[in-house]
Specification:
The protein has six helices and five strands, in the order H-H-H-E-H-E-H-E-H-E-E. It has about 220 residues and is α/β, with parallel strands linked by helices.
């Protein structure tokens, strides 16, 4: 007599919530692992320009970033896992930002806070301003604004937590620190004769191709 293989029916979110109300918690190692990481994000005590004032305000009692488990701003990159790039990144400061990023242990995340950190903002055409920190380090969450309010930073933190909860701990979609084929460190740019060398991290950023102009007949 042939044996019938058992079938598994996935449990729905409604059924999971109903069991939780009765004191029964169903979870897995991956979900438990991501739950703990997403609710204990420690930002680096680091700011660059005016957006840093809004970041500081987010930690005050009116906004209370402690509700999300991120009130522990660490003074050392060795103890932090979130880099909030808050403000204008000059080309003189860019190597220091990348160096801080490399000193942070994995798993680590980056939030680009404000128009300057995302694209250079109102100083985009300046010769001394970096046109986005994502040219050198990987950015997980972008928060637009000039400057964004503390509520926007809290919303970005919630989006980061959702991203962390959706990560897998194995396979090709696993984060950097769980994959042997990815390098966690980024090359630190140096001051060249006319610009930073290299001008960007080619793995993370590729400048858009110039449009091909067809000569008129």
């Amino acid at each position: 007599m042939d044996q019938i293989a058992p079938t598994t029916v996935p449990i729905t979110d409604a059924e999971r919530d109903e069991l939780r109300r009765h004191g029964i918690l169903l979870t897995g190692l991956e979900e438990l692992y991501n739950w703990g990481r997403s609710r204990s994000v420690w930002p680096l005590n680091f700011g660059l320009a005016c957006c840093a004032i809004e970041m500081i305000a987010a930690s005050m009692a009116k906004f209370d970033i402690a509700r999300f488990g991120s009130e522990v701003f660490r003074p050392s990159p060795r103890q932090a896992d979130l880099l909030i790039v808050s403000g204008t990144v000059t080309k003189k400061m860019a190597p220091q930002v990348v160096r801080l990023w490399n000193q942070m242990p994995e798993p680590k995340f980056c939030i680009a806070m404000g128009a300057c950190a995302i694209s250079g903002g109102p100083f985009k055409q300046g010769y001394n301003v970096l046109k986005g920190i994502d040219r050198f380090i990987p950015v997980d969450i972008y928060i637009p604004g000039c400057p964004p309010r503390p509520e926007a930073l809290l919303h970005g933190l919630v989006q980061l937590q959702e991203k962390m909860r959706g990560q897998t701990i194995s396979g090709p979609d696993a984060p950097r620190h769980l994959r042997a084929d990815l390098d966690c460190d980024c090359p630190i740019p140096e001051f060249g004769e006319h610009d930073l060398e290299p001008p960007q991290n080619d793995i993370l950023f590729q400048p858009p191709a110039s449009p091909v102009r067809t000569p008129k007949a």
